[in-house]
Specification:
- By secondary structure, the protein is α/β, with parallel strands linked by helices.
- It contains 3 helices and 8 strands; from the N terminus they run βαβαβββαβββ.
- Helices cover 20% and strands 35% of the residues.
- A 4-stranded mixed beta sheet has the order 1-4-3-2. It has a 4-stranded mixed beta sheet with strand order 5-8-7-6, covered by helices on one side.
- The N and C termini lie far apart (34 Å).
Length: 131
């Protein structure tokens, strides 16, 4: 099986992106630029003994996505404990709403956002009472 083991988020401004993901989700970063041969920071997204994967922020190699264009790639969704407070952090740190919060009835709250680099990502809060 081809299990997902790593992700990369393409960014225009590395420091701005590190600040955004660090402030919103509490991620930490390790400089792997020498290994990659370009600005590349490993993203530690949680403790090793919890579900999930780590990834990286890498310097974008082409023009950024145009506003309002269709998604052309994968959208990563982060699990959160409190949807509303996470949304507030996203907006406070320069993110924008792409698709507002909606219920996955009996399962969770879901929504999509645009980060400071023009990338779309989701947040997901499990909630059996969502409707």
């Amino acid at each position: 099986m081809g299990r997902l083991i790593h992700f990369e988020i393409h960014v225009d401004n590395m420091e701005r992106a590190k600040k955004f993901y660090g402030e919103v989700f509490g991620w930490t970063f390790e400089d792997w630029s020498d290994y990659a041969g370009m600005p590349y920071f490993g993203a530690v997204t949680g403790a090793e003994n919890t579900p999930g994967i780590n990834g990286a922020l890498m310097q974008r190699q082409s023009p950024p996505p145009e506003p309002n264009q269709a998604l052309n790639g994968y959208a990563c969704t982060m699990g959160v404990e409190d949807y509303d407070s996470t949304e507030a952090k996203i907006l406070t740190n320069g993110g924008k709403v792409a698709l507002p919060k909606y219920a996955l009835p009996g399962m969770a709250w879901q929504g999509y956002y645009v980060d400071t680099e023009g990338n779309i990502f989701g947040i997901h809060q499990p909630d059996e009472n969502a409707k």
